[in-house]
Each structure stands twice: as C-alpha cells, then as structure tokens.
Amino acid sequence: MTNVWTITWRELKAYFVSPLAYILSAAFLALSGVFFAFDITYGRQASMQNSLVTVIFIFLILAPALTMRLLAEEQRMGTLELLLTSPLHDWQVVVGKFLGSFILFAVMLVAPMLYYVLILTVFGPPDYGPLATGYLGLLLLGASFLSIGVFASSLTQNQVIAFFVGEVVAIIMWVADAFGGLLGSGAAADALNYLVITRHYRDLMRGVVDTTDVVYALSVIAVSLFLATQVLQTRRWR
Amino acid sequence: MPDDVSPRAATIQVQNLTKVYGYTEALRDVSFDVGKGEVLGFLGPNGAGKTTTMRILTGFMPPSSGTARVAGYDVFYDSIEVRKRIGYLPETVPLYTEMSVWDYLDFAARLRGVAQRDQAIERAMEMTNIGDKADTLIGKLSKGYRQRVGIAQAVVHNPEVLILDEPTIGLDPKQIIEIRNLIKSLAGDHTVILSTHILPEVSQICSRVLIINEGKIVAEDTPARLAARVRGAEHVYLQVAKPAPEIPAEIEKVQGVLGVQAKDAAAGVYEIETTPNTDRRADIAALAVQRGWGLLELRPVSLSLEEVFLKLTTTEEEAA
C-alpha cells in the first residue's frame, strides 16, 4: 500500500503545479453552479435531484481531461521506465494514479458542492437522505469515469488521444440503453441496459442505496483498472 | 529463489538471451557473466542490442528466450527482487520536469523503499555533485545536471548492481571526468554495467568490455587484451630522411618482419608489420643507420580501441 500511496502523492502534487486542476475545478463549479441556479429557480424545490444528474453529465465531459495525462505522459517522457523498473507491481502504478485523480475529484470538485446544500436550507429543510446518497452516487460514478479515463490513458502516449478515447467510452456507457432499445429484448439488450450509467444513478438520487448500483460502479472501476494494468504489461512485451 | 549459484558467484549471469521484436532479432543467443565489483562496458553501434540487454536485466521487458539472473534472482520470475537490487539509468533519463531535484529523489527513494531517505538523498546528491540544486525544478536544469540527477536517482538506494545506459552522454568534459571517477569509485562494492559510444571511456573505467553487434557478442575481454588480440601482429612506424625505392625490400629481409607498407613514400614513412610479441625495432634501427637512410622516427603503433571496434563491427564491404 505504501507503493500505491507514493504514486498517488506524486500525482496529487503534479496536479497542483499545473494549471489544469484549477481550470477544471473552476469550470466544473461554474457550470454546476449555473445549472443548480436554474434548477432552484425553475424547480422551486429544496432538492438537488435534477442538479446532480446535470453535474454527473458535466463531469462525464471533464473527467477524461483529469486523467488523460496520467499514463500517457509517463510513456511519452520515458518516466514509465523508471516506474516499471522500480520494485513495485504494475497494478500499484495504475491504482496509485487512479487514486490521485479520485482524491483530486473528491476534494476539488465534490467537496465545494456541499455549499449548495447550505443554499438549499435557505429555501427550507432539504431531505438529507437523498442528498447523502446523491453525493455517494456522484463519488461512485465520478470514480467510474476516472477509471475509464485511466484505461484510455494507458493506451497511448498522446494526451489528446487519451482524452477522446476516454470521452467516447464514457458517452457510450451513458447512452448504452439506447442501443439496448434497438435490440428489443434478450440477453444482449439486458447487458446493454445494465451497462448504462444513468440507470444506476436514478435509485441513488431517490435515496435508495441498491447494492447492485454500488457493485456496478465498483465493477466498472475494477475492470477499467485491470485493463489498464494489462495494457501496461503488454508494453513490456513490445 | 537463489539456486544454481556458480562457484564464481557471478552477480549477473546471462545465458542464451534472445529477444525478438516482430520479425527482427534484437538479441541472438547472448551469454555473459559479470562478477561482483566488476565494471563491464557494453560497446556497439546504435541498434546493436545494448539497450535491449539492459532492459531485460532491469525487468523492464522479458526475454523471448534464455535466462538472466541478478544476485541469484531470475529477472523474469523474481522481477521485484531483482529490481530492488538494481539502480538503473535508462537511455532517456526518466525525469519529472515539474518536480524539484529533492522531491524527485525523494520519490525515487520511496519507490525503492529506502528507510532513511534524507541521508540517502544527501549522499546521492553529494556523489553526483548536485548538492546546490536541491530546490531547483528539474525542468530548469541544463542537460548535464539532468544527467547527473538521473545518476543520483540510480544510486539513491545504494544498489548492489548499477546499470547505466550511456551515463556520460550530454556532459561537458569536466563533468564526464567527474562521472567517470564516480563510476570508478563505485566499482568494488557495486557491480556496474554501462554502455557507451565513447571508446576511451571503456578503456578508462571498465575492467572488461563486451562488444555487441547486430544482437550478438562479437568480442569479450579486457580493453588492453582486446586491442592486442585484434592487432594480431605488432606494427612499427618508421620515418627516414632519405626515402629510396629499395627500402621496403631491404627491411623485409630483417628477421621477424612480415611486411612493409610505404604509407607516404615521398615523406619516407613506412609501416612495418612484425611477428606478434616481438620487438624488432633495434634491428630495424641498426639497418637504417648502416644504410645511411637518415633515421627520423621509429615507434610502435598501437591500435586504438576505435580501430578494434571498427574492425570487429564493420564488415569488409562496409569498410570499402
């Protein structure tokens, strides 16, 4: 675990010396703030159900920008050779990098959003249950997008390519049920319907913590990080 | 598991290593041993397989076939154990330009699980003479400093084995001397493998040289013996004041002389080849004096490592 933390800590410091973290955080908070304001003004409800769905979508767009550098830059700069010849396992590199982006996401993006809860109290006592599960959902799904981004970043030396690959995979998972709808019914349609991200989010928004939803997010993370590790390992064979 | 330890207890044992990339064979059946405390030099043209060999030893990539052991551990099956014992400077120095020198070395030390990091970092910075740059961002450093930070990273955990891929590239002459002295000082306690293009470097710091060409080892010996072996015969340089057409034939009559070549007949310069391990200079000098050629210069010609290298790695067609 020390090895993972070494990687994570370096990654966090790297985020803060580049303007990227600040710009992304500002963009994210500005956009989510705008949508929150609309939602409060037109919805007239002391709840954040709609805002959080919008927030997830904004984050889907921004997440690959947070992760595109992680492994692509190591490959381009040759620093991957340092990591892969140090006494740590490939998965520790991948998990360390993922945790770096996740901590940044939780601290810079999600934590400031607690401020919206304060604003809601102005209008009346909000229902804290759905809010808490809503935030839990935000963290889980954010982590899913980030893990997909880490996988995309393992594929290439080019950050721009990593960004777009991450983006496309995440968007496809966002709308997977549309493909499921095309297929009508059957196992393939069920699988596609299961994959779709928004579906798992709806219950959490309502304040219901369904284990399948948590398992869904955790399995997306596990599979993405596993694939990223495999890609790193194949680098050794080339 | 450290089994199959040879009686010499070589720190690095490489057996029949082959590496294939697609259809190209980067390494073909390479075998060699490196004893504890030895400094082994890898010499060879670009693309000869030096970097590939080093990458296999450091666990960066597996061999296609063959085995390699470092300190008794297999580089493939016990990769982590091997990596703990190796300090590696890759060809492209792996630096994070946004970090300060100290932070970078701290990161490298953490990766290797160094217990007392501050002392280890200070020692590595002192060894590589970068103590004054601890707080400088690596991105702001000159090429020479970056190279030394790369070496500091490789020695920070005081590894048993050091593998340096072109350690002196990009350094100025003064820095080159410093790094060579550093490597020399590490020999004995550490086993070192380094690759280089600079041939005098090999004769200065390596106890043994391995010349690789097209993925195969073409020669392995001490720098001095290698030069002697390739030479095959002794060469003598002769210059006389009064050149004459009969001089080559006259000298060839001296016992032990194999052949005479007029290098620059007008200037009276000849190269004389004699049987190995003999010195015929006294006889040749006596002859020159006796015939009144006006002896100006007579000295043995030693083949430089450059020539050895070219002889071993260049085929006849390429040389023509």
Describe this structure in words.
- The complex is a heterodimer of chains A (238) and B (320).
- Chain A is an all-alpha fold and 238 residues long.
- Chain A has one domain.
- In chain A, 84% of the residues lie in helices and 0% in strands.
- Chain A contains 13 helices and no strands.
- Chain A starts with a helix and ends with a helix.
- Chain B is elongated.
- The N and C termini of chain B lie far apart (51 Å).
- Chain B folds into 2 domains: 12-222, 3-Layer(aba) Sandwich (Rossmann fold), CATH 3.40.50; 229-308, Alpha-Beta Plaits (2-Layer Sandwich), CATH 3.30.70.100.
- In chain B, the strands form 3 sheets. In chain B, strands 6-7-8-3-9-10 form a 6-stranded mixed beta sheet, sandwiched between helices. Chain B has a 4-stranded antiparallel beta sheet with strand order 2-1-4-5. A 4-stranded antiparallel beta sheet of chain B has the order 12-13-11-14.
- In chain B, a hairpin with a 2-residue loop joins strand 4 (65-70) and strand 5.
- Chain B is of the alpha/beta class and 320 residues long.
- Chain A binds chain B through residues 2-3, 6, 10, 13-14, 17-18, 77-89, 236-238, and chain B through 21, 55, 58-62, 80-81, 83-84, 86, 88, 90, 92-99, 103, 107-108, 110-113, 153.
